[in-house]
C-alpha cells in the first residue's frame, strides 16, 4: 500500500511538472481532478479519475482514466 501511495505521489508530481504555470489572470484556465477508489477484485483497488478542464474561452473538456494498483494510468472501454 505504501508503494502504491508513493507511485501515486510520483505520478501527481510528474503531471504537475508538465502542467503549464497559471498566469496571475483570475479568468484563466481552470482544472479539476477527482479520483474515486473502486474495488475491482478481492484485494485489488483501482482509482477511477475524472479530469475537467475549462480553457480561457469557457470551453469545458472532460477526460476519464483509471489508475491500477501499481500507480499506472490506463484507459478502459
Descriptive account of the structure:
This protein is of the alpha+beta class and 77 residues long. The chain has one domain (2-74). It has one helix at 2-18, and strands spanning 30-39, 45-54, 60-67, 73-74. The protein has a four-stranded antiparallel beta sheet, with no helix packed on it. The longest helix has 17 residues, at 2-18. The two termini are 26 Å apart. Keywords: Signal. Residues 1-24 form the signal peptide. This is Transmembrane protein. It comes from Stenotrophomonas maltophilia.
Summarize the structure.
The chain is an alpha+beta fold and 77 residues long. The protein is 22% helix and 39% strand. It contains 1 helix and 4 strands.
Task: Return the domain count.
Answer: 1
Which class do the helix and strand fractions yield?
Answer: alpha+beta
SSE run: HEEEE
What fraction strand? 35-45%
Rounded to the nearest angstrom, the radius of gyration is 15 Å
Task: Let me know the number of strands.
Answer: 4
How would you sum up the major sheet?
4 strands, antiparallel
Ends apart, CA distance between termini: 26 Å
Query: Average pLDDT value?
Result: 78
Protein name: Transmembrane protein
Keywords: Signal
Signal peptide: 1-24
Topology overview:
Layout: H1 2-18, E1 30-39, E2 45-54, E3 60-67, E4 73-74
Antiparallel strand pairs: 1-2, 2-3, 3-4
Quick tags:
77 residues, alpha+beta, four-stranded antiparallel beta sheet, 4 strands, 22% helix, 39% strand
Amino acid at each position: 500500500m505504501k508503494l502504491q501511495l508513493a507511485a501515486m505521489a510520483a505520478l501527481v508530481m510528474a503531471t504537475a511538472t508538465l502542467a503549464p504555470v497559471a498566469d496571475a489572470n483570475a479568468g484563466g484556465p481552470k482544472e479539476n481532478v477527482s479520483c474515486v477508489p473502486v474495488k475491482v477484485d478481492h484485494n485489488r483497488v483501482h482509482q477511477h479519475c475524472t479530469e475537467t478542464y475549462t480553457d480561457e474561452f469557457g470551453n469545458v473538456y472532460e477526460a476519464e482514466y483509471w489508475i491500477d494498483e501499481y500507480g499506472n494510468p490506463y484507459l478502459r472501454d
